[in-house]
Amino acid sequence: MTTSGKQAGGSAGTTGHVTLADRRQFLLGSAALGLGAAAGLAPRRARAQSRAEITFASAAFFGSETFGDLSNAYNESQDKVKVTYLNLPPPSSSTEVYQGLVQQLARRTGTPDVFSQDVIWIAGFAAAGWALPLDEYFPADKRADYFPGTVEACTYDGKLTALPWFLDTGMFYYRKDVLEKHGGKVPTTWDEMATIAAEAQKAGDVKFGYLWQGKQAEVLVCDAVEAISSAGGSILSADGKSATLNSEAGVKAIQFLHDTINKTKISPSDVLSWDEEPSRQPFTGGQAMFMRNWSYVFPIAQDPKASQVVDKVGVAPLPAFQGGKSSACLGGYQLGVNANSKQREAAVDFLTWLSSVETQQRIALNFGLGPTRANLYDDAKIKAANPFMAGLKPVFQGATPRPVTPQYAKVTLALQSGLSKALQSGDVKAELDATAERVDAALG
Q1: Which of 212, 251, 287, 293 has the fewest C-beta atoms under 10 angstroms from its C-beta?
Q2: Which PROSITE patterns does its entry note (predicted)?
Protein backbone atom coordinates (compact mmCIF):
# COMPACT_ATOMS: atom_id res chain seq x y z
CA MET A 1 0.00 0.00 0.00
CA THR A 2 1.42 3.34 -1.00
CA THR A 3 1.53 6.24 1.42
CA SER A 4 0.54 9.73 0.38
CA GLY A 5 -0.15 12.99 2.15
CA LYS A 6 -3.64 13.74 3.44
CA GLN A 7 -5.64 16.12 1.26
CA ALA A 8 -7.44 18.98 2.92
CA GLY A 9 -11.19 18.81 2.98
CA GLY A 10 -14.17 19.79 5.10
CA SER A 11 -17.87 19.89 5.47
CA ALA A 12 -20.00 21.43 2.73
CA GLY A 13 -19.04 25.02 2.03
CA THR A 14 -15.82 24.92 4.04
CA THR A 15 -12.21 24.00 3.58
CA GLY A 16 -9.48 23.00 5.98
CA HIS A 17 -9.92 21.48 9.45
CA VAL A 18 -13.27 21.66 11.22
CA THR A 19 -13.18 22.73 14.87
CA LEU A 20 -15.29 21.62 17.79
CA ALA A 21 -16.89 25.04 17.81
CA ASP A 22 -17.89 24.54 14.17
CA ARG A 23 -19.41 21.19 15.07
CA ARG A 24 -21.44 22.68 17.91
CA GLN A 25 -22.68 25.41 15.57
CA PHE A 26 -23.62 22.78 12.99
CA LEU A 27 -25.63 20.81 15.53
CA LEU A 28 -27.36 23.93 16.88
CA GLY A 29 -28.22 25.07 13.37
CA SER A 30 -29.56 21.66 12.45
CA ALA A 31 -31.65 21.54 15.62
CA ALA A 32 -33.09 24.97 14.87
CA LEU A 33 -33.96 23.89 11.34
CA GLY A 34 -35.75 20.81 12.68
CA LEU A 35 -37.75 22.89 15.18
CA GLY A 36 -38.73 25.41 12.53
CA ALA A 37 -39.95 22.68 10.21
CA ALA A 38 -41.88 20.99 13.01
CA ALA A 39 -43.62 24.30 13.72
CA GLY A 40 -44.78 24.54 10.12
CA LEU A 41 -42.31 27.31 9.19
CA ALA A 42 -40.75 25.26 6.38
CA PRO A 43 -42.23 22.77 3.93
CA ARG A 44 -41.49 19.12 4.68
CA ARG A 45 -39.69 18.73 1.32
CA ALA A 46 -37.39 21.68 2.05
CA ARG A 47 -36.46 20.15 5.40
CA ALA A 48 -35.66 16.81 3.78
CA GLN A 49 -33.56 18.47 1.09
CA SER A 50 -31.54 20.32 3.75
CA ARG A 51 -30.22 17.10 5.23
CA ALA A 52 -26.54 16.39 4.73
CA GLU A 53 -26.21 13.15 2.76
CA ILE A 54 -23.46 10.69 3.62
CA THR A 55 -22.64 7.05 2.89
CA PHE A 56 -21.68 4.28 5.27
CA ALA A 57 -19.84 1.15 4.08
CA SER A 58 -19.52 -1.94 6.24
CA ALA A 59 -19.11 -5.67 6.06
CA ALA A 60 -22.40 -7.52 6.51
CA PHE A 61 -22.65 -9.22 9.90
CA PHE A 62 -25.10 -11.94 10.95
CA GLY A 63 -27.84 -10.94 13.37
CA SER A 64 -31.54 -10.40 13.90
CA GLU A 65 -31.19 -7.16 11.94
CA THR A 66 -28.66 -5.61 9.55
CA PHE A 67 -26.39 -2.59 9.64
CA GLY A 68 -28.74 -1.16 7.05
CA ASP A 69 -31.43 -1.28 9.74
CA LEU A 70 -29.07 0.62 12.05
CA SER A 71 -28.58 3.29 9.41
CA ASN A 72 -32.34 3.61 8.97
CA ALA A 73 -32.79 3.94 12.73
CA TYR A 74 -30.32 6.82 12.77
CA ASN A 75 -32.10 8.48 9.84
CA GLU A 76 -35.39 8.25 11.69
CA SER A 77 -33.91 9.60 14.92
CA GLN A 78 -33.03 13.05 13.56
CA ASP A 79 -33.55 15.42 10.62
CA LYS A 80 -30.09 16.80 9.91
CA VAL A 81 -28.27 13.86 8.28
CA LYS A 82 -29.34 11.11 5.88
CA VAL A 83 -27.19 7.98 5.66
CA THR A 84 -27.13 5.61 2.70
CA TYR A 85 -25.79 2.18 3.64
CA LEU A 86 -23.35 0.45 1.28
CA ASN A 87 -23.43 -3.28 1.94
CA LEU A 88 -20.08 -5.08 1.63
CA PRO A 89 -19.49 -8.87 1.78
CA PRO A 90 -19.56 -10.62 5.18
CA PRO A 91 -16.42 -10.63 7.37
CA SER A 92 -15.75 -14.23 6.37
CA SER A 93 -14.81 -12.70 2.98
CA SER A 94 -12.58 -10.11 4.62
CA THR A 95 -10.17 -9.94 1.68
CA GLU A 96 -13.03 -8.85 -0.56
CA VAL A 97 -14.22 -6.35 2.07
CA TYR A 98 -10.70 -4.93 2.33
CA GLN A 99 -10.27 -4.65 -1.43
CA GLY A 100 -13.63 -2.93 -1.79
CA LEU A 101 -12.72 -0.32 0.81
CA VAL A 102 -9.25 0.24 -0.65
CA GLN A 103 -10.68 0.83 -4.13
CA GLN A 104 -13.12 3.40 -2.80
CA LEU A 105 -10.80 5.22 -0.39
CA ALA A 106 -7.92 5.38 -2.86
CA ARG A 107 -10.06 7.39 -5.26
CA ARG A 108 -10.19 10.21 -2.70
CA THR A 109 -13.71 11.18 -3.76
CA GLY A 110 -15.06 11.20 -0.23
CA THR A 111 -17.11 8.00 -0.64
CA PRO A 112 -17.82 6.29 1.67
CA ASP A 113 -17.93 9.06 4.28
CA VAL A 114 -17.97 6.58 7.16
CA PHE A 115 -16.68 3.02 7.07
CA SER A 116 -16.11 0.13 9.42
CA GLN A 117 -12.74 -1.56 9.30
CA ASP A 118 -11.20 -4.70 10.67
CA VAL A 119 -8.83 -3.77 13.48
CA ILE A 120 -5.92 -5.06 11.37
CA TRP A 121 -6.48 -2.44 8.64
CA ILE A 122 -6.31 0.64 10.83
CA ALA A 123 -2.54 1.18 10.55
CA GLY A 124 -2.55 0.77 6.78
CA PHE A 125 -5.50 3.09 6.14
CA ALA A 126 -3.98 5.72 8.41
CA ALA A 127 -0.53 5.45 6.82
CA ALA A 128 -2.12 5.96 3.39
CA GLY A 129 -3.78 9.19 4.56
CA TRP A 130 -7.30 7.82 4.02
CA ALA A 131 -8.55 8.00 7.62
CA LEU A 132 -9.40 11.33 9.24
CA PRO A 133 -7.64 11.93 12.60
CA LEU A 134 -10.37 12.11 15.23
CA ASP A 135 -8.51 13.56 18.23
CA GLU A 136 -10.32 16.90 18.25
CA TYR A 137 -13.72 15.22 18.18
CA PHE A 138 -12.87 12.58 20.79
CA PRO A 139 -10.32 13.97 23.27
CA ALA A 140 -8.84 11.83 26.03
CA ASP A 141 -11.80 12.17 28.42
CA LYS A 142 -14.20 10.80 25.76
CA ARG A 143 -12.04 7.72 25.25
CA ALA A 144 -11.98 6.66 28.91
CA ASP A 145 -15.10 4.47 28.62
CA TYR A 146 -13.51 2.23 25.98
CA PHE A 147 -11.14 -0.66 26.60
CA PRO A 148 -7.64 0.88 26.61
CA GLY A 149 -6.35 -1.83 24.28
CA THR A 150 -9.00 -0.96 21.71
CA VAL A 151 -8.15 2.73 21.85
CA GLU A 152 -4.52 1.77 21.36
CA ALA A 153 -5.46 -0.35 18.35
CA CYS A 154 -7.36 2.64 16.93
CA THR A 155 -4.29 4.87 17.26
CA TYR A 156 -1.59 5.19 14.62
CA ASP A 157 1.48 7.40 14.78
CA GLY A 158 0.15 9.04 17.94
CA LYS A 159 -3.22 9.98 16.40
CA LEU A 160 -6.68 8.49 16.94
CA THR A 161 -7.65 7.44 13.40
CA ALA A 162 -10.54 5.11 14.26
CA LEU A 163 -13.27 5.00 16.90
CA PRO A 164 -13.92 1.79 18.87
CA TRP A 165 -17.13 0.04 17.84
CA PHE A 166 -17.28 -3.66 18.68
CA LEU A 167 -14.89 -6.41 19.64
CA ASP A 168 -14.70 -10.11 19.15
CA THR A 169 -12.31 -12.90 20.03
CA GLY A 170 -11.99 -16.55 19.29
CA MET A 171 -13.96 -18.70 21.76
CA PHE A 172 -14.22 -22.36 22.70
CA TYR A 173 -17.70 -23.82 22.29
CA TYR A 174 -18.65 -27.19 23.74
CA ARG A 175 -21.65 -29.45 24.15
CA LYS A 176 -22.54 -29.46 27.82
CA ASP A 177 -24.64 -32.62 27.60
CA VAL A 178 -21.98 -34.64 25.79
CA LEU A 179 -19.20 -33.34 28.03
CA GLU A 180 -21.17 -34.50 31.07
CA LYS A 181 -20.96 -38.06 29.73
CA HIS A 182 -17.18 -37.76 29.38
CA GLY A 183 -16.06 -36.38 32.72
CA GLY A 184 -17.85 -33.03 32.87
CA LYS A 185 -14.65 -30.98 33.01
CA VAL A 186 -14.01 -28.41 30.31
CA PRO A 187 -10.54 -29.17 28.88
CA THR A 188 -7.90 -26.51 29.47
CA THR A 189 -5.16 -28.07 27.33
CA TRP A 190 -5.25 -29.06 23.67
CA ASP A 191 -4.25 -32.63 24.52
CA GLU A 192 -7.16 -32.96 26.96
CA MET A 193 -9.50 -31.61 24.33
CA ALA A 194 -8.27 -34.08 21.70
CA THR A 195 -8.65 -37.02 24.09
CA ILE A 196 -12.21 -36.15 25.10
CA ALA A 197 -13.20 -35.38 21.49
CA ALA A 198 -11.91 -38.76 20.31
CA GLU A 199 -13.77 -40.54 23.12
CA ALA A 200 -17.05 -38.83 22.23
CA GLN A 201 -16.62 -39.78 18.58
CA LYS A 202 -15.81 -43.41 19.43
CA ALA A 203 -18.89 -43.60 21.67
CA GLY A 204 -21.05 -42.38 18.79
CA ASP A 205 -22.16 -39.27 20.67
CA VAL A 206 -20.97 -36.92 17.93
CA LYS A 207 -19.81 -37.15 14.33
CA PHE A 208 -17.05 -34.56 14.74
CA GLY A 209 -14.78 -34.01 17.73
CA TYR A 210 -13.42 -30.54 16.99
CA LEU A 211 -14.35 -27.97 14.35
CA TRP A 212 -12.18 -25.02 13.36
CA GLN A 213 -11.48 -22.87 10.33
CA GLY A 214 -8.67 -23.93 7.96
CA LYS A 215 -9.73 -22.14 4.78
CA GLN A 216 -7.00 -20.09 3.10
CA ALA A 217 -8.46 -16.83 4.38
CA GLU A 218 -8.05 -14.34 7.22
CA VAL A 219 -9.75 -16.63 9.71
CA LEU A 220 -6.93 -19.17 9.27
CA VAL A 221 -4.49 -16.52 10.49
CA CYS A 222 -6.74 -15.98 13.52
CA ASP A 223 -6.78 -19.69 14.36
CA ALA A 224 -3.00 -19.81 13.94
CA VAL A 225 -2.43 -16.77 16.16
CA GLU A 226 -4.39 -18.45 18.95
CA ALA A 227 -2.67 -21.82 18.64
CA ILE A 228 0.84 -20.38 18.34
CA SER A 229 0.32 -17.90 21.19
CA SER A 230 -1.05 -20.66 23.43
CA ALA A 231 2.23 -22.50 22.87
CA GLY A 232 4.21 -19.43 23.91
CA GLY A 233 5.08 -18.30 20.39
CA SER A 234 4.16 -15.41 18.11
CA ILE A 235 3.74 -14.55 14.43
CA LEU A 236 6.15 -11.60 14.49
CA SER A 237 8.93 -10.45 16.78
CA ALA A 238 8.10 -7.92 19.50
CA ASP A 239 9.29 -5.02 17.33
CA GLY A 240 7.21 -6.25 14.39
CA LYS A 241 10.18 -6.32 12.04
CA SER A 242 10.69 -10.05 11.52
CA ALA A 243 8.74 -13.30 11.36
CA THR A 244 8.89 -15.76 14.25
CA LEU A 245 6.06 -18.16 13.37
CA ASN A 246 8.60 -20.86 12.42
CA SER A 247 9.86 -21.11 16.00
CA GLU A 248 9.57 -24.35 17.94
CA ALA A 249 6.29 -23.11 19.44
CA GLY A 250 4.92 -22.20 16.01
CA VAL A 251 5.76 -25.57 14.50
CA LYS A 252 4.22 -27.38 17.50
CA ALA A 253 0.99 -25.43 17.19
CA ILE A 254 0.47 -25.86 13.44
CA GLN A 255 1.47 -29.52 13.68
CA PHE A 256 -1.29 -29.99 16.24
CA LEU A 257 -3.88 -28.50 13.88
CA HIS A 258 -2.64 -30.75 11.07
CA ASP A 259 -2.86 -33.76 13.38
CA THR A 260 -6.51 -33.09 14.28
CA ILE A 261 -7.27 -34.16 10.71
CA ASN A 262 -4.60 -36.74 9.99
CA LYS A 263 -3.64 -38.30 13.34
CA THR A 264 -6.23 -37.90 16.07
CA LYS A 265 -8.90 -37.54 13.36
CA ILE A 266 -11.13 -35.40 15.53
CA SER A 267 -11.58 -32.89 12.69
CA PRO A 268 -12.84 -33.64 9.18
CA SER A 269 -10.58 -32.78 6.25
CA ASP A 270 -13.35 -30.39 5.16
CA VAL A 271 -12.17 -27.86 7.76
CA LEU A 272 -9.38 -26.96 5.32
CA SER A 273 -12.03 -25.36 3.11
CA TRP A 274 -14.23 -24.02 5.90
CA ASP A 275 -14.48 -20.52 7.32
CA GLU A 276 -16.86 -19.48 10.12
CA GLU A 277 -20.31 -20.42 8.83
CA PRO A 278 -19.52 -23.87 7.36
CA SER A 279 -17.89 -24.81 10.66
CA ARG A 280 -20.74 -23.35 12.73
CA GLN A 281 -23.56 -25.19 10.97
CA PRO A 282 -22.59 -28.78 11.94
CA PHE A 283 -22.07 -27.64 15.52
CA THR A 284 -25.47 -25.98 15.93
CA GLY A 285 -26.86 -28.97 14.00
CA GLY A 286 -25.80 -31.20 16.90
CA GLN A 287 -23.00 -33.03 15.10
CA ALA A 288 -19.92 -31.78 16.96
CA MET A 289 -18.40 -31.87 20.44
CA PHE A 290 -16.08 -28.84 20.41
CA MET A 291 -15.64 -25.82 18.15
CA ARG A 292 -13.53 -22.70 17.86
CA ASN A 293 -15.52 -19.73 16.57
CA TRP A 294 -16.56 -16.13 17.34
CA SER A 295 -19.20 -14.74 19.69
CA TYR A 296 -21.93 -14.48 17.04
CA VAL A 297 -22.50 -18.25 17.31
CA PHE A 298 -24.00 -18.17 20.81
CA PRO A 299 -27.31 -16.42 19.99
CA ILE A 300 -27.72 -18.72 16.96
CA ALA A 301 -27.13 -21.77 19.18
CA GLN A 302 -29.95 -20.54 21.45
CA ASP A 303 -32.42 -19.98 18.59
CA PRO A 304 -34.81 -22.96 18.21
CA LYS A 305 -35.37 -22.06 14.56
CA ALA A 306 -31.65 -22.37 13.74
CA SER A 307 -30.24 -24.77 16.31
CA GLN A 308 -30.56 -28.37 17.45
CA VAL A 309 -28.56 -27.69 20.63
CA VAL A 310 -30.57 -25.01 22.44
CA ASP A 311 -29.51 -24.82 26.12
CA LYS A 312 -26.83 -27.46 25.49
CA VAL A 313 -23.92 -25.17 24.57
CA GLY A 314 -21.23 -23.82 26.84
CA VAL A 315 -18.51 -21.27 26.11
CA ALA A 316 -15.03 -21.19 27.66
CA PRO A 317 -11.55 -19.84 26.99
CA LEU A 318 -9.69 -21.74 24.29
CA PRO A 319 -7.35 -24.48 25.50
CA ALA A 320 -3.57 -24.02 25.64
CA PHE A 321 -0.56 -26.25 25.31
CA GLN A 322 0.93 -27.62 28.53
CA GLY A 323 2.72 -24.77 30.29
CA GLY A 324 1.12 -22.13 28.09
CA LYS A 325 -1.94 -19.97 28.56
CA SER A 326 -5.17 -19.55 26.66
CA SER A 327 -5.03 -17.08 23.80
CA ALA A 328 -7.95 -15.47 21.99
CA CYS A 329 -7.34 -13.61 18.75
CA LEU A 330 -8.53 -10.01 18.91
CA GLY A 331 -11.05 -9.24 16.22
CA GLY A 332 -13.83 -6.79 15.63
CA TYR A 333 -14.54 -3.81 13.43
CA GLN A 334 -13.85 -0.19 14.32
CA LEU A 335 -15.18 3.01 12.75
CA GLY A 336 -13.41 5.47 10.50
CA VAL A 337 -14.16 8.73 8.70
CA ASN A 338 -12.91 9.23 5.17
CA ALA A 339 -10.23 11.94 5.23
CA ASN A 340 -11.70 13.22 1.96
CA SER A 341 -15.31 13.34 3.09
CA LYS A 342 -17.09 16.54 2.07
CA GLN A 343 -19.50 16.13 5.00
CA ARG A 344 -17.15 15.69 7.93
CA GLU A 345 -19.50 17.05 10.58
CA ALA A 346 -22.35 14.82 9.45
CA ALA A 347 -19.97 11.85 9.31
CA VAL A 348 -18.71 12.49 12.84
CA ASP A 349 -22.26 12.84 14.14
CA PHE A 350 -23.20 9.44 12.66
CA LEU A 351 -19.92 7.95 13.92
CA THR A 352 -20.71 9.20 17.43
CA TRP A 353 -24.20 7.67 17.28
CA LEU A 354 -22.88 4.31 16.05
CA SER A 355 -20.40 4.09 18.93
CA SER A 356 -22.80 5.38 21.59
CA VAL A 357 -23.84 3.36 24.64
CA GLU A 358 -27.32 2.82 23.22
CA THR A 359 -26.19 1.62 19.79
CA GLN A 360 -23.45 -0.62 21.17
CA GLN A 361 -26.06 -2.18 23.48
CA ARG A 362 -28.31 -2.76 20.45
CA ILE A 363 -25.47 -4.41 18.53
CA ALA A 364 -24.66 -6.64 21.50
CA LEU A 365 -28.28 -7.75 21.78
CA ASN A 366 -29.08 -8.17 18.08
CA PHE A 367 -25.73 -9.32 16.69
CA GLY A 368 -24.03 -10.92 19.69
CA LEU A 369 -20.97 -8.70 19.17
CA GLY A 370 -18.95 -7.50 22.16
CA PRO A 371 -19.10 -3.80 23.07
CA THR A 372 -15.91 -1.76 23.25
CA ARG A 373 -17.38 0.15 26.21
CA ALA A 374 -16.32 -1.78 29.31
CA ASN A 375 -19.33 -0.76 31.43
CA LEU A 376 -21.78 -2.47 29.05
CA TYR A 377 -20.59 -5.86 30.27
CA ASP A 378 -22.50 -5.07 33.48
CA ASP A 379 -25.65 -4.10 31.55
CA ALA A 380 -28.70 -6.03 32.78
CA LYS A 381 -30.26 -6.46 29.32
CA ILE A 382 -27.04 -7.79 27.81
CA LYS A 383 -26.52 -10.17 30.74
CA ALA A 384 -30.04 -11.51 30.35
CA ALA A 385 -29.84 -11.98 26.58
CA ASN A 386 -26.24 -13.24 26.38
CA PRO A 387 -25.19 -14.55 29.81
CA PHE A 388 -21.78 -15.55 28.52
CA MET A 389 -20.95 -11.98 27.50
CA ALA A 390 -20.48 -10.79 31.09
CA GLY A 391 -17.50 -13.12 31.34
CA LEU A 392 -15.86 -11.73 28.21
CA LYS A 393 -14.60 -8.55 29.84
CA PRO A 394 -11.28 -10.05 31.06
CA VAL A 395 -10.90 -11.93 27.77
CA PHE A 396 -11.12 -8.71 25.78
CA GLN A 397 -8.73 -6.98 28.14
CA GLY A 398 -6.08 -9.61 27.45
CA ALA A 399 -6.82 -10.68 23.87
CA THR A 400 -3.94 -11.38 21.48
CA PRO A 401 -3.74 -9.09 18.43
CA ARG A 402 -2.74 -10.14 14.98
CA PRO A 403 0.51 -8.57 13.72
CA VAL A 404 0.32 -4.77 13.91
CA THR A 405 1.99 -3.36 10.81
CA PRO A 406 1.08 -1.01 7.93
CA GLN A 407 2.15 -3.91 5.70
CA TYR A 408 -0.49 -6.24 7.11
CA ALA A 409 -2.25 -6.70 3.78
CA LYS A 410 0.92 -8.26 2.35
CA VAL A 411 1.80 -10.13 5.53
CA THR A 412 -1.58 -11.82 5.84
CA LEU A 413 -1.54 -13.08 2.26
CA ALA A 414 1.85 -14.67 2.86
CA LEU A 415 0.58 -16.21 6.11
CA GLN A 416 -2.64 -17.54 4.59
CA SER A 417 -0.80 -19.21 1.73
CA GLY A 418 2.00 -20.66 3.86
CA LEU A 419 -0.22 -21.92 6.67
CA SER A 420 -2.55 -23.55 4.16
CA LYS A 421 0.36 -25.34 2.49
CA ALA A 422 1.67 -26.54 5.86
CA LEU A 423 -1.72 -27.96 6.83
CA GLN A 424 -2.28 -29.59 3.46
CA SER A 425 1.16 -31.15 3.08
CA GLY A 426 2.05 -31.96 6.68
CA ASP A 427 5.61 -30.73 6.05
CA VAL A 428 5.04 -28.11 8.71
CA LYS A 429 8.59 -27.00 9.55
CA ALA A 430 9.68 -26.55 5.93
CA GLU A 431 6.53 -24.65 4.97
CA LEU A 432 6.73 -22.34 8.01
CA ASP A 433 10.39 -21.61 7.24
CA ALA A 434 9.44 -20.65 3.69
CA THR A 435 6.51 -18.59 4.98
CA ALA A 436 8.75 -16.72 7.40
CA GLU A 437 10.97 -15.69 4.48
CA ARG A 438 7.98 -14.37 2.55
CA VAL A 439 6.70 -12.49 5.58
CA ASP A 440 10.13 -10.90 6.11
CA ALA A 441 10.11 -9.79 2.47
CA ALA A 442 6.62 -8.29 2.91
CA LEU A 443 7.81 -6.37 5.96
CA GLY A 444 10.56 -4.84 3.83
Answers
A1: 287
A2: TAT
